[in-house]
Amino acid sequence: DLPKTFALLNCFPNPFNPSTKISYAIPKQNNVVLRVYDILGNEVSTLVNEMQSAGSYQIVFDASELSNGVYFYRIQAGNFVETKKMILMK
């Protein structure tokens, strides 16, 4: 079944060390951009930046090169934009 709405799910596990899974769903083909930012708003990683078909997706974020702290992951797909918080605890 294809998703009926856009969704950015909570990452799991959270808090995490050193990696976590980020899941999202898009109901129709869209250019999807998924980025991770530090607490100051600096971009630390671009996980996805491509046209994707409708469906549910999961991506692993490896933060082994980053320091402890709070990070935010943000998705943009068409007019849908959502941001969620995650915590890296080494």
Written overview of the protein:
- The protein is mainly β and 90 residues long.
- 0% of the residues lie in helices and 61% in strands.
- The protein is built from no helices and seven strands.
- It has strands spanning 7-8, 19-26, 30-38, 43-52, 55-62, 69-77, 80-88.
- The strands form two sheets. A four-stranded antiparallel β-sheet has the order 4-3-6-7, with no helix packed on it. The protein has a three-stranded antiparallel β-sheet with strand order 1-2-5, with no helix packed on it.
- β6 and β7 form a beta hairpin.
- The radius of gyration is 13 Å and the shape is elongated.
- The termini are far apart.
- 18% of the residues are buried.
Low-confidence stretches: none
Strand content: over 45%
Output the helix-strand order.
EEEEEEE
Report the end-to-end length measured between terminal Cα atoms: 38 Å
Number of helices: 0
Average pLDDT, all residues = 97
Number of strands: 7
Q: What does the radius of gyration come to?
A: 13 Å
Please tell me what the overall shape is: elongated
Query: Order of strands side by side in the largest beta sheet?
Result: 4-3-6-7
| Helix vs. strand class | mainly beta
Helix content: under 10%
The profile of the biggest β sheet is: 4 strands, antiparallel
